[in-house]
Design brief:
Largest sheet: 2 strands, parallel
Mean pLDDT: 88
Strand content: under 5%
Number of domains: 1
Distance between the termini: 32 Å
Radius of gyration: 19 Å
Length: about 325
């Protein structure tokens, strides 16, 4: 299956929609009740239109991660981050976004990751660019909009500063441009809620930013331990591959790969900016982890990569079946 996506033809990314639908099959069949934790005001508005669970939210989630996978392929191909040009980043992003049963729901993090990727497009595009004010402002804008879907995405402002420090000599003016891009949507939203006499609702119920230890909502202990083990293994694989990813790459690519690792480490802060978290907080890792995992499979011998991928997909589908049928937990 991986051989289909060993191409640099971006149009072939459209095949990923079938891949996403297959991986999320059980989530489309078993439409269990579900409610998100920590959603922002834009997420709440979408849930008011389509509901928390059901066939419509499930389809939206599937289409959304397909689009995001396509965007990641475009980003990696544009910046030539991979050793070989292929469509693996989008494929493994979709795979990671489908690996746990809670990920099959329309999580607010699926919605926010769309703007995470847009922000990366802008931030990674500033390398050796004489005038990058537009990129910096737009990155702040996308970060702010993403935080309206899931407030923890405000932490990406720290990633923007790390990018400035890595790709350019950091200047206060550049930081202020990013900050102005973040503040503008907030000003508009605050004015709207003040005008409609709902400001207290915005600052309380609908936008629950809380710096501190969050309340943790965990599913069945088996699912919790499986998720920790799985993501722990993935993290170890990409961390031990760090040097290999940088080897034989030009300085520009090395710096951008280091930014993806910075994004991984930055994810540790995400839970501490919101009052309640559940397992879907792990989707904060999906963007950088999907790209870095794809590099690991790109560097593997073809037959080994195909075998591991097939085992992963088969295990995922069987695990979903056990969970949704009630045989597990």
């Amino acid at each position: 299956m991986l051989s289909i996506f060993r191409t640099n033809q971006l149009m072939a990314s459209f095949l990923l929609v079938f891949y996403a639908a297959a991986l999320r099959f059980w989530g489309l069949v078993y439409l269990e009740p579900w409610e998100p934790t920590g959603s922002g005001i834009f997420s709440d508005w979408i849930y008011e239109q389509v509901g928390y669970s059901g066939i419509v939210p499930a389809i939206i989630a599937t289409v959304l991660i397909f689009i995001e996978g396509w965007m990641l392929n475009a980003l990696v191909l544009r910046d030539r981050l991979g050793r070989d040009a292929n469509l693996f980043p989008g494929l493994f992003y979709i795979l990671i976004c489908s690996v746990l049963p809670p990920f099959l729901q329309l999580s607010p993090l699926h919605l926010a990751n769309f703007f995470y990727i847009l922000a990366l497009f802008e931030l990674l595009g500033i390398y050796k660019k004489a005038n990058c004010a537009t990129n910096l402002f737009n990155s702040g804008l996308w970060i702010a909009i993403g935080s309206f879907f899931y407030p923890s995405y405000l932490v990406l402002f720290v990633l923007a500063i790390a990018v400035l420090n890595t790709l350019r000599s950091i200047k206060l003016g550049d930081v202020l441009i990013v900050l102005s891009g973040i503040l503008l949507p907030y000003i508009y939203v605050l004015v709207y809620f003040y005008w409609t006499d709902q400001l207290s609702l915005l600052l309380g119920q609908h936008f629950p930013i809380q710096l501190g230890v969050p309340e943790i909502h965990l599913p069945d202990p088996i699912l919790y331990y499986i998720s920790i083990i799985f993501f722990g293994i993935l993290m170890l694989v990409v961390l031990f591959s760090w040097g290999g990813f940088l080897a034989k790459n030009v300085i520009q690519v090395q710096k951008k790969i280091n930014i993806l690792y910075s994004a991984l480490f930055l994810s540790i802060l995400a839970p501490f900016m919101i009052d309640k978290v559940s397992l879907d907080i792990l989707l904060f890792l999906a963007v950088p982890l999907g790209v870095l995992t794809s590099f690991s499979f790109t560097n593997m011998p073809g037959q080994r990569a195909e075998t591991i991928h097939l085992i992963w997909v088969a295990g995922l589908l069987y695990f979903h079946f056990l969970v949704f049928s009630g045989a597990l937990g």
